[in-house]
Amino acid sequence: METLRKTITVTRQQNEWIKAQIESGNFTNYSEYFRDLVRRDQAQLLEIATIRSELIKGEKSGEPVAFNGEHFKMLMNAKHA
Asked: For 1-56, what is each residue's pLDDT tens digit?
C-alpha cells in the first residue's frame, strides 16, 4: 500500500497527549497513532451511515404495528419451554 507524508499542526497539550499514548505503549510512533484515529473515524462514519440506512428502511416499511407484550411473552414461553 502506498503511503503519503502529511504535515499537521497540533497544540502543545495535544502533542503531550499523543506522546503519552506512545510512551504508554499504546502506539509505537506518531504515524501509528494518527492512522488509528483515521481508521476509527472511518468505522464510526460507516456505522452511522448503516444506522441511517436502516432507519430509512424502517420508516418506509409501512405503518407501525402495536406491540402486544403479553402475546410476545406467551410466544417466547412456548418457544423456550
From this structure: 899 999 999 999 999 999 999 999 999 999 999 999 999 999 999 999 999 999 99
Q: What is the residue range of 73's domain?
A: 12-79
Nearest to 38 by CA among 77, 6, 72, 81: 6
Q: How many Å apart are CA 19 and CA 28, to the nearest integer?
A: 10
User: Which residue, 33, 37, 40, is CA-closest to 18?
Assistant: 33
Number of folded domains in the chain? 1
Residue 18 burial (CB count, 10 A): 17
Grid look-up 505503549 returns 25
Whole-number Å distance between alpha carbons of 48 and 23: 32
CB proximity list for 36: less than 8 A, separation 6 or greater? 27
Q: Any idea what DSSP says for residue 26?
A: S
